[in-house]
DNA sequence: CGCTCGCTTGATCTCCTTCAAGGACAGTGG
DNA sequence: CCACTGTCCTTGAAGGAGATCAAGCGAGCG
């Protein structure tokens, strides 16, 4: 069983060089493990968290609820990712972080991270970079929802989740877990559930992907990429099988 | 005449407490000043910059060009703001930074900033926070373009630019400079120029704002806020006249 | 003076929304 | 073991916000 600290250390290492000593220091961080039921928030609008979240299993999402009750999802978070690093230096949450399905998380206190930041410049750099990559992802979501027609947008989201899953070694034989409902996709893309449904069917009929009972199967990755015009550069991954395009 | 370093120091101070010594250290940074013609890029997709940009006058924008040649603007940058702090720890640009109108910028070398980061924890914290606030702004742009109908989205963008202008003391008597064309608004909001034009007219007719020859005049701030359902929290400003809502 | 750039207007089209309802499936309790 | 209920997926029909196409207009400028 890998520790929470080690999970974080590995994740950081996927964005750049992490010296052995720094890796060990991060891996040694103490954490509380918590199980979060499905559809439950871990952090809420207005909170002042004093710990950082690491996803251990399950799936999380970041979202806001608009004035008319409309939910906009800002991002999804796979196991091994650290969704709330920004709370280290932002005074309060302006959005919500919740579990999509039953999810196990690790909580590492800000204090411990601050010590790492002060004492380990290389680890600090990767922590910082991680928050910057998240910003780049948000910008890509902006582009997706502003410019792309539904079928491209949906394909693009599949591409992103697939590449990110691959980057944390959660893809096997072209299959990865993606336990969402169509409504989650709709709220991520700014579409209605009805239209998402129809778009999904159209995508299925291309033969590029299959998505059933929370499992995404990519049958034809080049075709999926082509449909979405997907360029993984914005994920700033050091190296993955799928992210070779530069 | 205020120096580039001092401009940056002041800007950082608008996001949190900056001790006198740290302020002085940032203010003392050496910078190159450059004049950029309108519609000219300072940083391009794929670049590896080794300096940070501070806007001194004019207006900048961050954008990408999609596969079909469609431009999506990710953000605008007013004088006193620092648009490219993320280049400190991101390996390469995945977007473009350009001047909208003739713009004067200051360039501070990464090396100098790295020294500040290493030696001045408080300044470092504010630099980091600045990048995190930018991420929060990107998320709000996502919400705006995904969920809001055109008239609300446009009003919301006006609200943001107005509050940000106010935060850097560029509002006088309800007027601030906003030297954009309707096409820029369109590309920021993911709309067509034609529809932006009609939406703009509708907004004008509410009497809340006026926007002519690059000048934004807010006649009725409460009304504008109401139209957009604008909540300035996401800007994480320490205090401004307009951002009092928490 | 002619030219370009930005703004404006009209007409038509289409992608997506809205509203409404039916169906598959799993979990629960009798 | 089977009705009961909730959740999620699916389908149909109609309506609307915004896109597209096309053209005219005004102002600054070489």
Overview of the structural elements:
2 copies of one chain form a homodimer. Chain A is 42% helix and 20% strand. The first copy, chain A, is α+β, with helices and mostly antiparallel strands and 246 residues long. In chain A, the strands form 3 sheets. A 4-stranded antiparallel β-sheet of chain A has the order 2-6-4-5. Chain A has a 3-stranded antiparallel β-sheet with strand order 1-7-3. In chain A, β4 and β5 form a beta hairpin. In chain A, α5 crosses α7 (193-206) and α5 (150-167) packs across α8. The mean pLDDT of chain A is 95. Chain A binds chain B through residues 64, 66-67, 70, 72, 74, 86, 88-91, 94-95, 118, 121, 125, 128-129, 131-136, 138-139, 141-143, 145-147, 189-190, 229, 233-234, 236, and chain B through 64, 66-67, 70, 72, 74, 86, 88-91, 94-95, 118, 121, 125, 128-129, 131-136, 138-139, 141-143, 145-147, 189-190, 229, 233-234, 236.
